[in-house]
Amino acid sequence: MAWVLLTVAGLLEVVWATAMKSSNGFSVFWPSVLTVVAMLASFGLLSIAMKSLPLGTSYMVWVGIGAIGAFIAGIILHGEALNLSRITAAALIVAGMGLMKISA
């Protein structure tokens, strides 16, 4: 169950990071509200998952899901660049997350 909570927490990190971008520096109301709500939910679920998962593993997987998700959201929603070096960096993050999960 902790892994499910951690995964949802990571997905909520993608939500709040994407909403924060859309909030235009917290000057647009609804994206700002979504940012704060998703952030609180993400941190809350992360803290529950950390009760039974190692700190380093939990945090690394949470950040990794958020980073990869934000990378994909940036490409799809904001037209950010997709090139070999960015894909390689993302692949290395995924590889690190996999290795960290295997070693937990």
Automatic annotation (TrEMBL):
The keyword Cell membrane is annotated on this UniProt entry: yes
Protein's UniProt keywords contain Transmembrane helix: yes
Gene Ontology terms describing biological process: xenobiotic detoxification by transmembrane export across the plasma membrane
Membrane topology: Multi-pass membrane protein
Gene3D superfamilies xrefs: 1.10.3730.20
Keyword field: Cell membrane, Membrane, Transmembrane, Transmembrane helix, Transport
Subcellular location: Cell membrane
Chief subcellular location: membrane
A GO term from the CC aspect: plasma membrane
SUPFAM superfamilies named in the record: Multidrug resistance efflux transporter EmrE (SSF103481)
Molecular function, one GO term: transmembrane transporter activity
TM ranges: 27-47, 59-78, 84-102
One Pfam assignment: Multi_Drug_Res
Entries under InterPro entries matching the protein: EmrE-like, Small_drug/metabolite_transptr, Small_multidrug_res
Stated family: Belongs to the drug/metabolite transporter (DMT) superfamily. Small multidrug resistance (SMR) (TC 2.A.7.1) family. Gdx/SugE subfamily.
Protein name per UniProt: Guanidinium exporter
Annotated organism of origin: Celeribacter halophilus
